[in-house]
Write a structure and sequence with these properties.
By secondary structure, the protein is mainly α. The chain has 2 domains: about 160 residues, no CATH class; about 80 residues, Arc Repressor Mutant, subunit A, CATH 1.10.10.10. About 60% of the residues lie in helices and about 5% in strands. It has a 3-stranded antiparallel β-sheet with strand order 1-3-2. The radius of gyration is 19 Å and the shape is elongated.
Length: about 260
């Protein structure tokens, strides 16, 4: 029988293989991870506000690990990586963010996740009181992180299923040529959730009217909504993706729950 760590590794490898040939918009997972990690640190605005304010995907470097840390068991190894990242801080400080980002970076260093960022912090946010209580207890944190990673695979799968469904739906209603402004607008909506006219112009090299025409076509089918209420410097958001993330952040999931501690 496989151990919990071995099941986690198997699930990670299978998920990463699926992502490699899977839906568009996997960059969204990085924004979700960053947002959830900020929420753990006390950030209160919504996911949409986070993106409008310029919230970015995790960029922290991995904590340097030595061969002696590569002990038997993925959970123990990651708990030690987390401990190094947090140092003397706690889960709500910048060191806490570094520790969470380091866990994700270490999964990439180990080759378990190569094509996306896993939103582990969403799962940790779902058991925040436990996470806070055991963050410095290496033994208990080891098992807790394995459970969180298993749950985050389920969360990421659900997000990418939504991305895939919207991608198919939007392109069925708005057929677009590869490389067109509309094609770029759809890609940006799926990967970044918010669409800023100047950024879309920069990406496509299109003029203002063509960019606006593409955005309005997506507004017309309900794919995007203007979210600032401004007449100038408008920003449009893919509200269905925002809703998916907010439901998951609120604990609206039926699979992969972290075990009661």
């Amino acid at each position: 029988m496989l151990s919990r760590d071995e099941i986690c590794v198997r699930n990670l490898v299978r998920f990463d293989a699926d992502v490699a040939v899977g839906p568009a918009g996997i960059g969204l997972l990085g924004f979700v991870e960053s947002f959830a990690s900020h929420v753990i640190s006390g950030y209160s605005p919504s996911f949409l506000d986070f993106l409008i304010e310029g919230g970015d995907a995790p960029r922290s470097a991995a904590v340097a690990t030595s061969p002696s840390l590569r002990v038997k068991g993925l959970g123990v190894h990651l708990a030690r990586v987390h401990k190094l990242g947090m140092h003397r801080g706690d889960i709500s400080t910048i060191e806490g963010k570094s520790a969470r980002f380091a866990v994700g970076a270490e999964l990439r260093n180990l080759g378990l996740i190569q094509h996306c960022t896993l939103p582990v912090s969403v799962a940790l946010r779902g058991k925040l009181s436990v996470y806070r209580r055991i963050a410095k207890d290496e033994g208990r944190l080891a098992s807790f992180l394995i459970d969180a990673i298993c749950e985050s695979v389920e969360i990421a799968t659900r997000i990418l299923e939504t991305v895939d469904r919207l991608d198919r739906s939007w392109r069925a209603e708005l057929p677009s040529k590869k490389g067109s402004v509309l094609d770029a607008a759809i890609d940006m909506s799926l990967s970044e959730v918010v669409v800023v006219g100047d950024r879309l112009r920069s990406v496509t090299g299109a003029n203002k009217s063509n960019v606006y025409r593409a955005v309005q076509a997506m507004v017309g089918i309900g794919a995007l909504s203007e979210v600032t209420g401004r007449r100038k410097n408008q920003i449009w958001g893919a509200t269905q993706l925002v809703d998916t993330v907010e439901v998951l952040m609120a604990g609206g999931r039926s699979v992969g729950k972290i075990a009661a501690w």
